[in-house]
Design a protein that fits this description.
The chain is mainly beta. It has a 22-stranded antiparallel beta barrel. It has a 5-stranded mixed β-sheet with strand order 6-14-15-10-11. The longest helix is centred in the N-terminal third of the chain and has 7 residues, at 87-93. It is globular. The N and C termini lie far apart (55 Å). Belongs to the TonB-dependent receptor family. Pfam families: Plug, TonB_dep_Rec_b-barrel. One of its GO terms (molecular function) is signaling receptor activity.
Length: 725
């Protein structure tokens, strides 16, 4: 049985490393509620100029962002499918992970690996974006091996999602698209809140968010966000502890210049594996924890510091420079039971391993934006040059563990220390230059973009026992492009069509060949329509797409000299075709709603003989979701009360690429209730109680991906008491 399968299992299909932009205003400011006088966060988010993707909109509805074009562009003029998770949605749903944050967005498949708090792993349009599609403030958040940056949702003010290949602006990225995580930024008006939470599995959490001007005279604003959590999970020996702190400073000496510095440090403790034992005799997942409670620690420390600078040179030109340095270290031990013992089948033979990984990445993106007219044509021209550097180091060792006793499966077993046997060091440099012109003529917008990337990858792979080192150098280069056309009617309807490509160099090595991976390439054709209803805060979108990807990375069981192991391999061609529908609204009557439907037909066009022509595992043909929140009117006895409810339908899919195992369809329900005590009396202004439940009916079906099976995460209930002033 693969020794690292339970550890790497959350990382399937497609891979990469390192990308770009900058914010101009903070998040929502504070105001006084007209009815109660209580301080409340304004729902409208305003941003001007280029930004790190900060969303313009109101309530649940985002209407513009810099994510789709690196310039602040209305969604109606962006020639690709784009949507958002706003601050208002985060407030109502109180997500505890990035997967929960994205669970109601179209095309997004979360939960393909069941319960697993260790990784933020998900796919869009059938393609895994764990390595290639996570961006932070329009700059790539890289990943390699098990070194994946963890995201704390409380540190976000929103997420912008651009679906489909997008390398023309962002360089190395995947076929599915990109998710731009938007960090909380300093606010102009004071914002202060503290919150206590208690939830299922002894989950204790305290958090705070403080922001505003440093003083009354200097143009300097700050924000400090933090939390401390001590939590168990539904799986024995798998904790979800975290300490998190994120300082930010904005300096705006005049209307033409702005500098924002964003920092973060976190320490997260979890398990080396969270997998359930898969019985090879029945081919089904059991309720037995496959790991060893005495050998299952995983501690990850990560930090980042970066800045976003913008200066308007004159009425035409704006210069931006955005940079970030990120680092993480993960140290983990794991064991995994894989088969009944030949002499005593009540005992399960177990393997064990240990690893220590470090990832350090730096990126700097320089932009010049020019706005001008040539006759009847208005231009927003963007030139850019970015540089990215990644260093990945991995120490890895494997061994054996005492067998698991099925009569007492949660008992710990002593494991002898496991020395490291291999050391891999990989350095990757990437430089890219790009240009984009958004040409506006009457109601038409033509978007033309092109980029060229040069990538150098040097890998040293050492067997520690002998000292033998294999050095491999790889040089890649590629052109990426996008062309799109939109037409915006005067009543808010905007049809569009586009063609885009992506290029993604891959970090890590093939453990079978001990060679680095070739780049992954993809291309997309998309046609769609967006409709911003007049006199209504409602956005409707629809998109049809076709994506072809070559040289993707997948996890597959391979017989190595040390035994069978689940490793990344590279081969083949995938094709994804589908339809996405989305509706988002926030109305004056207190109702906010987001709903989506996705049809994804994804097949293996070229691949292993036993899977060619088959459907890709764990990609449902049909997915749908709806979440609604309703705040009671002021003139009713229930004023101050709000209720929310959601349902997520995940259609059936295959559990392996040979299509011999099938996942059943399922519907998962979520709910929320919250109460603002200021409705009782003004002396309670700023005090709010909220309870959120995820998977309300505790449905824990089996779900299989890549031939290995997991269980859906069970019901969680979290109560929170927040005070704002």
């Amino acid at each position: 049985m693969p020794r690292r399968f339970p550890l790497r299992s959350a990382l399937v299909t497609s891979t990469s490393i390192l990308a770009l932009a900058l914010p101009l205003t903070g998040t929502a400011a504070l105001a006084q509620d007209a009815a109660t006088g209580a301080p409340t966060v304004l729902e409208e988010i305003v941003v001007t100029g280029g930004s790190g993707g900060v969303i313009t909109g109101e309530g649940y509805v985002g209407t513009a962002s810099a994510t789709g074009a690196k310039t602040d562009t209305p969604f109606l003029q962006t020639p690709q499918s784009i949507s958002s998770v706003t601050d208002a949605q985060l407030e109502d749903r109180n997500p505890q992970s990035l997967q929960e944050t994205l669970a109601y967005t179209p095309g997004t498949r979360v939960g393909a690996f069941g319960f697993d708090p260790r990784f933020d792993s998900f796919s869009v349009r059938g393609f895994d974006v764990t390595y290639t599609g996570i961006f932070r403030d329009n700059l790539r958040q890289p990943g390699a091996g098990s070194s994946l940056f963890k995201t704390e949702p409380y540190g976000l003010e929103g997420v912008s999602i651009l679906r489909g290949p997008s390398s023309a602006l962002y360089g190395a990225s995947g076929a599915g698209g990109l998710y731009n995580l938007i960090t909380k930024r300093p606010t102009i008006e004071p914002l202060r809140e503290v919150e206590l939470q208690y939830g299922t599995n002894q989950r204790y959490q305290g958090q705070f968010d403080l922001s505003g001007p440093i003083n009354e005279t200097d143009p300097i604003y700050y924000r400090l966000t933090g939390l401390l959590r001590d939590a168990d999970t539904e799986q024995v020996s798998v904790s979800d502890d975290r300490a998190y702190i994120a300082p930010a400073i904005t300096w705006k000496p005049d209307e033409d210049t702005k500098l924002t510095i964003l920092g973060e440090y976190s320490r997260t403790k979890s398990g080396g594996t969270a997998a359930y034992y898969n019985d090879p005799l029945t081919g089904k997942v059991t309720d037995i924890f496959g790991g060893n409670p005495d050998f299952n620690d995983s501690v990850q420390k990560q930090a980042r510091i970066g800045y976003e600078f913008e200066h308007r040179l004159n009425d035409v030109f704006v210069f931006r420079q955005n940079a970030r340095l990120s680092t993480l270290n993960i140290d983990a031990d794991y064991a995994f039971a894989y088969a009944p013992n030949a002499l005593d089948p009540t005992l399960l033979d177990s393997s064990a391993g240990t690893f220590d990984e470090r990832l350090t990445a730096g990126v700097i993106d320089n932009q010049i934006e020019a706005k001008f007219a040539t006759g009847a044509f208005d231009h927003t021209l963007l030139f850019g040059l970015d540089f990215q550097k990644l260093r990945y180091r991995s120490l890895d060792g494997t061994g054996t563990a005492p067998p698991l006793d099925t009569a007492n499966p949660n008992a710990g077993r002593d494991v002898d220390p496991i020395p490291f046997s291999t050391r891999t060091v990989q350095d990757q440099w990437q430089i890219g230059t790009y240009v984009q012109d958004q040409i506006r003529y009457d109601a038409w917008t033509l978007t033309l973009g092109g980029r060229y990337d040069w990538v150098n990858t040097d890998t040293d792979d050492t067997v520690l026992a002998s000292g033998d080192t294999t050095t491999t150098s790889q040089r890649d280069k590629a052109f990426s492009g996008r062309i799109g056309l939109t037409y915006e009617t005067d009543f808010g309807l905007a049809p569009y069509l586009s063609y885009s490509t992506a290029f993604s160099p891959n970090a890590g090595i093939n453990q079978e060949t001990r060679r680095p991976f070739d780049p992954t390439e993809s291309q997309q054709q998309e046609i769609g329509v967006k409709y911003l209803l007049p006199d209504s805060n409602t956005l409707l979108t629809a998109a049809l797409f076709n994506i072809d990807q070559d040289n993707g990375l997948y996890y597959e069981v391979v017989n190595l000299p040390t035994g069978p192991e689940n490793i990344q391999v590279q081969r083949g061609k995938l094709r994804s075709r589908g339809l996405e529908l989305e509706a988002t609204t926030s109305l004056d009557n207190g109702l906010s709603l987001t709903a989506s439907y996705t049809y994804t037909h994804m097949k293996i066009i070229e691949g292993p003989a036993d899977s060619q022509g088959n459907f890709v595992s764990s990609v449902p043909l049909h997915m749908a979701s709806v979440w609604a929140n309703y705040d009671m009117p002021e003139d009713t006895f229930a004023h101050g009360l709000g209720v929310g409810a959601g349902a997520r339908f995940i259609g059936s899919s295959f559990g392996n690429d040979t299509n011999t195992v099938k996942n059943s369809s399922r519907v998962l329900f979520d709910a929320a209730v919250h109460y603002d005590f200021a409705a009782i009396d003004k002396k309670y202004e700023g005090l709010k109680l909220q309870v959120n439940a995820t998977n309300l009916f505790d449905r824990r079906d089996a779900v299989c991906s890549g031939g290995f099976c997991y269980r859906d995460q069970g019901r969680t209930v979290i109560g929170s008491l927040k005070y704002s002033w």
